[in-house]
Amino acid sequence: MSPAAFQDKNVLITGGLGFIGSNLACRLVELGAQVTLLDSLIPEYGGNLFNITGIEGRVKVNISDVRDAHSMRYLVQDQHYLFNLAGQTSHMDSMHDPYTDLEINCRAQISILEACRNHNRDIKIVFASTRQIYGKPDFLPVSEDHLLRPADVNGVNKMAGEWYHILYNNVFGITACALRLTNTYGPRMRVKDARQTFLGLWIRLLVEGRPFEVWEGDQLRDFTFVEDAVEAMLLAAACEQANGRSLNLGGDSVVSLKELADLLVEVNGGGEYVAGSYPPDRKRIDIGDYYADFSRIRSALGWDPRVGLREGLARTLSYYRQHLEQYL
Ligand SMILES: NC(=O)c1ccc[n+]([C@@H]2O[C@H](COP(=O)([O-])OP(=O)(O)OC[C@H]3O[C@@H](n4cnc5c(N)ncnc54)[C@H](O)[C@@H]3O)[C@@H](O)[C@H]2O)c1
């Protein structure tokens, strides 16, 4: 990707005050883009104004909701790129309140796409999809050819959201693609609870000097450092080879949760964890082992994760040692 791809380009990021959206915003500002961040800042979700400290004077912030079709109609106009990241991200919340998840992760996606169809047909859209849509894997590593069989309401709605993007690309010519993210971590992630990921809560407790709980430590997972996820999104936006496709992201290594916990404690220079087990309501939607085959994005866009797990964890811990109080 040439950095010039984003110079002076108008870029809208939905969910732009959240974890990945704000990291993406920082990178796009560096690349010379004119960035607008749309975020609802609903307190239970991951948006945080502190996330844009340092770039706050160089981006436009629009506090609105992707469920509001009127806001979307106005905001998509004149944008060259849309990074569509706004979402309800908690799997458990989607089980307790399926309608809100449906409204945000599914219905609002049609509003966004309709706004583009009616008011900006030349926009390029990158949608943040998720590995959750595969459900419990039949084989590992999971490639894009794996059956989609989500294990929770969030997965069903994200799957629909993803496919609306691909459908609008194929049928209406609104250029769009989707990246299926796996566990993403790094500075600005949500750490006050496990709503975004268990790893956020582990990091908070470790920084506070408290023990964290590891449930069924032999489960396998892969992790993407947020800088690598941002790079993939920029490549997907800039490269025509991504158009109309859904591509997996992955990590540089596959670890069990126990190995992850040990590494985290080691990188932190100390700390403790205790063994626990899944509460029954979590167990019912758990997908077991997962790691991605990301060879397709590697060959299509030349993407590879660059930041190893050890370095990524060290950088994340260092960020929260400095800024934890802004995230509680
Ligand atoms: N972090 C991960 O590990 C991961 C994994 C797979 C997929 N994803 C996807 O990536 C995207 C970004 O995730 P994140 O980790 O940065 O989470 P996040 O919660 O930090 O960011 C999502 C943002 O969307 C905003 N938002 C939620 N509902 C909204 C609405 N109705 N209108 C406007 N804004 C709204 C939130 O305020 C938040 O700032 C999500 O769509 C998520 O499904 C993330």
Structure description:
The chain has 328 residues and is α/β, with parallel strands linked by helices. Helix content is 39%, strand content 17%. The protein is built from 11 helices and 12 strands. It has a 7-stranded parallel β-sheet, sandwiched between helices. Helix 1 links the parallel strand 1 and strand 2. Helix 1 crosses helix 7 and helix 2 runs parallel beside helix 4. The radius of gyration is 19 Å and the shape is globular. The two termini are 37 Å apart. The model has no long low-confidence stretch (mean pLDDT 96).
Task: Compute the CA-based radius of gyration.
Answer: 19 Å
Distance between the termini: 37 Å
Question: What characteristic shape results from the CA principal axes?
Answer: globular
Number of helices: 11
- In round numbers, the mean pLDDT is 96
- The secondary structure category is alpha/beta
Strand content: 15-25%
Sheet of most strands:
7 strands, parallel
Give the beta-strand count.
12
Q: Cofactors and ligands present?
A: nicotinamide-adenine-dinucleotide
Order of helices and strands: EHEEHEHHEHEEHEEHEEHEHHH
Strand order of the largest sheet: 3-2-1-4-5-6-10
Helix content: 25-40%
Ranges where pLDDT stays below 50 over 5 or more residues in a row are none
